[in-house]
């Protein structure tokens, strides 16, 4: 049984007893948002991250989801990508392809990964151009409060340093307000060259879910969610604040272990 609660301005928290329970809840949640988006818009535009997230989404490849989800309506994007070849072990595309996309009937032309033959800067510009074309045709919705794309769902992981997508603590990319997709060449976590959605895009989504497991991330979870006062460090995950959308945290108990217990109710 999960503990759940709402933390003022920091969204809904779901804290799970086990990884198995978290994975089932995550699969249910994604399937529900997919169904709602397809009913309302005819399509589902989802942006993935890399890292541990993809393994935690694994139940989507199993019954009942593999048969009940309308995969033909899914359009896949990446909230961040490493600028490496698509068949490289560090590629977020490869991770998702091997762990999810090759196991369910996604339409290949609906998978929008970065151009891996370009420099980081070119790949970021090109990816933004691709998204702009899909906003024009409303495959990706548009935000009412900014000129940004409004993804139906953006799924994020969280690094122990508080990074989300490829936005790292104190990095100038956090201040980008004009571009939808930006690039970095100095990621503190290898590989150094990456592209990433900017905060305005993440914060314009209809739904943002941050999926975090393990005690190595407990301090980052605390700094992202708890009331740490004005002097507390502003880690990237704390800057995830969807304007009109819904923010949800999927945590296991070790990741939630440093949160104030007062956030939680049965
Ligand atoms: O480098 C990255 O790290 C984060 C966190 O990964 P995790 O394995 O600690 O969950 C990930 O969300 C991001 O997409 C990836 O590029």
UniProtKB/TrEMBL annotation:
Protein name: Probable 6-phosphogluconolactonase
UniProt keyword annotation of Hydrolase present: yes
EC number: 3.1.1.31
Domain named Glucosamine/galactosamine-6-phosphate isomerase: residues: 19-249
Reactions it catalyzes: 6-phospho-D-glucono-1,5-lactone + H2O = 6-phospho-D-gluconate + H(+)
Molecular function terms from GO: 6-phosphogluconolactonase activity
Gene3D superfamilies: 3.40.50.1360
Family that this chain belongs to: Belongs to the glucosamine/galactosamine-6-phosphate isomerase family. 6-phosphogluconolactonase subfamily.
GO cellular component entries: cytoplasm
Keywords annotated in UniProt: Hydrolase
The keyword Chloroplast is annotated on this UniProt entry: no
One GO term (biological process): pentose-phosphate shunt
Lineage: Eukaryota, Viridiplantae, Streptophyta, Embryophyta, Tracheophyta
Pathway stated in the Swiss-Prot or TrEMBL entry: Carbohydrate degradation; pentose phosphate pathway; D-ribulose 5-phosphate from D-glucose 6-phosphate (oxidative stage): step 2/3
Top EC category: hydrolase
């Amino acid at each position: 049984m999960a503990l759940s609660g709402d933390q003022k301005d920091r969204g809904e928290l779901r804290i799970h007893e086990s990884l198995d329970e978290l994975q089932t809840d995550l699969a249910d949640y994604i399937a529900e948002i997919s169904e709602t988006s397809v009913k309302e818009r005819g399509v589902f535009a989802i942006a993935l991250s890399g890292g541990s997230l993809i393994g935690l989404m694994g139940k989507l490849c199993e019954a009942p989801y593999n048969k009940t989800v309308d995969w033909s309506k899914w359009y896949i994007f990446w909230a961040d990508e490493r600028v490496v070849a698509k068949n490289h072990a560090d590629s977020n595309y490869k991770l998702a392809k091997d762990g999810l996309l090759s196991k369910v009937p996604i339409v290949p032309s609906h998978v929008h990964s970065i151009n891996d033959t370009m420099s980081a800067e070119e790949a970021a510009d090109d990816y933004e151009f691709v998204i702009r074309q899909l906003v024009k045709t409303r495959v990706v919705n548009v935000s009412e409060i900014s000129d940004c794309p409004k993804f139906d769902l953006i799924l994020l992981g969280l690094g122990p340093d508080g990074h989300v997508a490829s936005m790292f603590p104190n990095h100038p990319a956090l201040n980008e307000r004009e571009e939808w997709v930006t690039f970095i060449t100095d990621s503190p976590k290898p590989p150094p060259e990456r592209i990433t959605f900017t905060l305005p895009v993440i914060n314009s989504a209809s739904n943002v879910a941050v999926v975090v497991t393990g005690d190595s991330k407990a301090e980052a979870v605390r700094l992202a969610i708890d009331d740490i006062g004005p002097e507390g460090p502003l880690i990237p995950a704390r800057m995830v604040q969807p304007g009109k959308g819904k923010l949800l945290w999927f945590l296991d108990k070790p990741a939630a272990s440093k949160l104030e217990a007062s956030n939680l109710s049965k």
